[in-house]
Each structure stands twice: as C-alpha cells, then as structure tokens.
Amino acid sequence: MTQKNFNYHKTHFVTSAPDITHLPADIGIEIAFAGRSNAGKSSALNTLTNQKSLARTSKTPGRTQLINLFRVEEHLHLVDLPGYGYAEVPEEMKRKWQRALGEYLQKRDCLRGLIVLMDIRHPLKDLDQQMVQWAVDVNLPVLILLTKADKLASGARKAQLNMVREAILPFQGDIQVEAFSSLKKLGVDKLRIKLDEWFNLPFDTDSEMSDQPEE
Ligand SMILES: Nc1nc2c(ncn2[C@@H]2O[C@H](COP(=O)(O)OP(=O)(O)OP(=O)(O)O)[C@@H](O)[C@H]2O)c(=O)[nH]1
Ligand SMILES: [Mg+2]
C-alpha cells in the first residue's frame, strides 16, 4: 500500500477542552504532544505547521492548561496536551491537569501515537518516564523529541541523544528518540515522517458517537 504524506501547514485549530468529555467524537486518529511545562510542545507544533501562533507559546510554564485539538485533515488530529511537572502551580490546579491528562491517555481510543518532548538538557525526569511507561503499557508508540537542541554544541547533543536512546531500552517499547529544535528547525523531518506513519494507520469512522457533528 502506498503511504500518503500529509501537508501539516494546512493544520488549523478546532477546539480547547478542559477534559475528554468536551472533545469531539472519539473517531479517526489523534497524535498527542506531551511533556513537562516549558519543554517546547506548542513551539514544536508551530514549527511543524509553519504557523507562528497556531499553538500559544509562553515563557511562563503552564500556559497550555487545556487539551487543544488541531485538525490536519478530516478525522486526523494533533493534540497539544497540558504540560506536567511545573512546581509553582497551585496543587489543586495541578491535580486537575494531571487528571485530564491521565484520562485522555487511558480513555481516548483514537490516540495512535505519543510525542513526548523533553528539554535536551534535562531529559527523562520522573514524570517523563511515567509518561513513557504509560504509553508502553497501552501499546502506544512513542517519539521522544529532545527539544531546544540548539542550546547544545553538536558533540554534547549527540552524547545526550545516545544517553537517552540507551536509557529507554529497558522500557522495551516502540520508542524512537530524536534531537529537535524549533529555533533551528532541526528534527522536523523526523517528526513529519513519524506523523505520516501514524496517520497512515487504518482507522474507524464508525463509532457509537459518529452521528454527532465533529466540531
Ligand atoms: N532555544 C530554544 N527555545 C525554545 C525552543 N522551543 C521552545 N523554546 C522556548 O521555550 C519556552 C517554552 O516553549 P513552549 O512551546 O511554550 O513550551 P510548552 O511545552 O508548550 O509549555 P506549556 O504550554 O507551559 O506546557 C518558550 O520561551 C520558547 O520560546 C527551541 O527549539 N529552542
Ligand atoms: Mg504549550
């Protein structure tokens, strides 16, 4: 079967939801961007789609507090998830996001792949590892992007990349690790290839909710 390559530049915003009950029908394919607050999720989405402010970026961690859904094509969506692990957020708010996040990952059937973004200088924190473990447990393939790679010289960058590749072997999952920089547009091709692969998977447009309008 020939594989389709998608044009991510045409991606547009669909909706923001505080939890999965407010998302459109659980059909088609979704690929989610997850990671610690400030890891560069929204920036990566903007770089991929070549749009300055499709996803809101901020120097203030914890900016994306909602599940943001973007449409690549009919039935194919990218999802910007709330960042985790930001210490200076009130405990109550943190719990709310973490719950929304866990629910999304465990209950959203159309989720076909997870992009986990980590600052290349501080990868594989506890919550990152938990996220990867979560994905492996539900057989979800993972692409780890080591973001802000422009902050390291090429030798240090390669060393970090090898270190993380080595460190994720014990997870025994379908996990690929690449360096990424929104600033220098590094690794964008690797991201695109992975998304194309996942968006080419077969999917069902027929669920018990499929008679509901999509937007
Ligand atoms: N140098 C450099 N800075 C980056 C890069 N990507 C993102 N940043 C910066 O990192 C900060 C956080 O980026 P965001 O994309 O908003 O991060 P996020 O993961 O969406 O954060 P939350 O929405 O809070 O979870 C911003 O100040 C960005 O400009 C990169 O590739 N290189
Ligand atoms: Mg964000």
Automatic annotation (TrEMBL):
GO terms for molecular function: GTP binding; metal ion binding. Keywords: Cell cycle, Cell division, GTP-binding, Magnesium, Metal-binding, Nucleotide-binding, Septation. GO terms for biological process: division septum assembly. Necessary for normal cell division and for the maintenance of normal septation. NCBIfam families: GTPase_YsxC. HAMAP family: GTPase_EngB. Belongs to the TRAFAC class TrmE-Era-EngA-EngB-Septin-like GTPase superfamily. EngB GTPase family. This is Probable GTP-binding protein EngB. It comes from Pragia fontium DSM 5563 = ATCC 49100.
